[in-house]
Amino acid sequence: MYEKAELSIDFLVVGGGIAGLASAIALRRVGHRVVVLERYSDADISKMSHGGIRLPPNVSKILFHWGLENALRRVSITSAAVEFDIYETGEFIGTHRWEEEVLRETRGEYLFLHHVGLRQVLYEAAIAAGAEVRAGATVASVSGDGPHVTLTTGETLLADVIVGADGRSSIVQQAIVGKDVHDVTPYHCLFYNTMVPGALMRADPDLAPFVTQADDCMFIWLGNNRSALGFRVGGKDEFALHLWVPPRQKGMSDDDCWGGGIDLDEMRRQLGLCEPRLLKMTKLAATPARVQVKMVPPIEDWVDEHGRMVIIGEAAHPLPAGSFQGGAMAVEDAAVLAKLFSHLRNRDQISTFLHAFQDLREDRCASVVHSEQSNLYFQMMPAGPHQEQRDQDMRAKTAQGDSVFGGGEAAEQWEQLKELFGYDAEDEADDWWVKWGLLRERAKQRSLDMEAEMNIARLSSFRVKA
Questions:
Q1: Which of 15, 178, 357, 370 has a Cα at 20 to 30 A from 298?
Q2: What is the pLDDT of residues 134-148, one digit of tens each?
Q3: C-alpha triplet 253, 257, 263: angle, nearest 5°
């Protein structure tokens, strides 16, 4: 059981995606009151919840700790390995099995599931925990001065803290920073996210192995300025397909499009030279989502000047679209925020805890963003000597019967992954409280005690003179 806060306060969470719902669950667990504002209706969300999502061990262990293990297992499968192929030819160049010892140490698992399945698990958990989730509630403005949110209907909602969990182009982020950081950043490439029906893949001898293997595996295709990634998801008989490709021709709109309306032929044209199995998958795929991939510079301020608004998840530290740590960082943020506010005793601590949240999360998130950017470069490395050396190293390890992460640049990637997987967000928050939070509270109490003693002494002196 979590420690309950001595003082319960009101949180307004803007955004009902993974970050917002995870925040609602975590904050309710420590006794705070939470209202989540989601601008889209439930029907709209179902249409936009495209594709699969990967949950690495650093986040699955948090969700397990929150009591969601059984619910997650019903809609997910556990990954056993990753296979690498060449995008243009389909040549197999190596594989890596997740080391059981490493996973045991992380206390989590690597899960594959549908995005809509994860959101449903989190939504049901938030409601069960006592949070209020308002769909179709569009926010017009926010302010940390007497914290309040105004909806497009004119309704004004008050709170003690406003949490901006509203994604890359966050209205809360804009209120804090003064601009849409994501919008003004140029994009690097395009990300397409779609699903392929498992039944159709099993009917094709070339595609059947992707969905009938004994050990569920993630497949990564390494290409020249292109990459693809695929995995079978739990809960539905589908295969998730992610594609990273160059921008389209000049003069054509590459705006983000989550709610359908993308022509499948458009996605296929962007494939370029690719192996036959990938082309077959795209011919069987559902209508994809399209997102611009941006390398957003770090956002300096996550907390507003009044110390009553904070941004989390993609609003605070945007990752390249399709990053496997995207959902994980949102849940880690929620866990840390709630852990800090489990120690709330008076309202004077609110600003301190919000700034502590940024201090605790900033370096971790910057490291993850850098890692995800490096991973994407590794997958999309332009043709040339560096790419040739990467492929030769992986082929050589495979020929020796070794993992592709057995040494060299690929081994460095694996070492980074192990560090990412082993991180425990809640432990970090506990450590901060023990090292700094308690010290600050004790110092504050000593100051108050000294002030009280001085006031008593002044009063006694006044009485003597009188």
A1: 15
A2: 999 999 999 999 999
A3: 75
